[in-house]
Design brief:
Layout (H helix, E strand, L loop, with lengths): L4 H10 L5 H12 L9 H8 L3 H10 L5 H11 L13 H19 L4 H12 L3 E4 L5 H11 L6 E4 L5 H12 L3 E6 L5 H12 L3 E6 L12 E4 L12 H16 L4 H15 L5
Parallel strand pairs: 1-2, 1-3, 3-4, 4-5
Helix pairs in contact: 1-2, 2-3, 3-4, 6-11, 7-11, 8-11
């Protein structure tokens, strides 16, 4: 486990059962780990988009007398960075810098590669492999499935909701599936939570890429790897989840002995068919 401010905050929060509002506060604090020790309760409430009393209740839920006690604790264990604030940037630059920070957090998380390596083994061993992503997460799931199909013998994409989801999970389970990879991004559809619960009841191991360790899908995932989304623009940005998906692809390839041969075969066929412009 690395000792970054964000990692220390994660450790503090993971030992408590938090409400959805409290998870939102926790997620905002992790994203701004270097700044939160010096934020007032009002500023933190504005950052998380909640009420000031919610911040006070959050501090109490963590075992502190109130928010001032929590802030004193944070100043001791997660000191703020000395870097200049974002005020000098316009809103578009701020969005880019926020994504850069999300990628930094992901890099810190990957300092311990064991969760990704475990996920790679689970995904490689599942025949077929289910990949789930609905609404905002559908593009992440579709991108992963597109590349995974070049090295994995049977990838089945679930990117449309409806009653057929359970049927397709049942069919995959009968065919030998052992794992499902889920991309879960805000706003989290209720159907994704229900589908993961059904998949686990069917005996599948659920690996999830989510925007936070406190996302609503956490309780229905066997292995959750967080990658934060950017929230500075009208629509969330998801550079970190996309990159994490490619990292999982790499880990899966490492556990597929014929992955390189499949890629070379595809390249040869693509050249023969003239698929790509030289």
């Amino acid at each position: 486990m690395n000792d970054s401010p964000a990692a220390r905050l994660q450790q503090l929060f993971e030992s408590h059962r938090l409400t959805p509002t409290q998870r939102r506060i926790a997620h905002s604090m992790v994203r701004r780990a270097a700044d939160v020790p010096f934020l007032s309760s009002v500023e933190l409430a504005e950052l998380a988009g909640v009420s000031q009393p919610s911040v006070t209740r959050f501090a109490v839920a963590l075992g502190f007398d109130g928010y001032p006690a929590l802030r004193r604790h944070l100043r001791e264990v997660a000191p703020a960075s000395s870097e200049a604030g974002p005020d000098a940037y316009n809103e578009y630059q701020q969005a880019v810098h926020a994504e850069i920070e999300n990628l930094r957090h992901l890099a810190e998380l990957l300092a311990d590669p064991s969760p990704v390596e475990r996920a790679g083994r689970l995904l490689a061993a599942s025949r077929p492999l289910l990949v789930l992503g609905l609404r905002a997460a559908s593009s992440q799931a579709r991108g992963f499935a597109y590349f995974a199909a070049k090295v994995h013998p049977d990838v089945r994409l679930l990117d449309e909701g409806g009653t057929m989801l359970a049927d397709r999970i049942d069919a995959a389970r009968r065919a030998g599936a052992s794992a499902l990879l889920c991309f879960a991004l805000p706003r989290h559809p209720k159907e994704v939570v229900e589908t993961l619960a059904y998949a686990r009841s069917a005996g599948l191991t659920v690996v999830t890429v989510a925007d936070s360790a406190f996302a609503p899908v956490a309780g229905h995932s066997d292995l959750l790897i967080p990658a934060a989304v950017g929230t500075g623009l009208a629509f969330d940005t998801a550079c970190a989840p996309m990159l994490l998906g490619r990292v999982l692809l790499e880990a899966m390839c490492d556990d597929l002995p014929d992955a390189q041969a499949r890629l070379e075969e595809f390249d040869a066929q693509a050249a023969a068919r003239g698929l790509f412009v030289e």
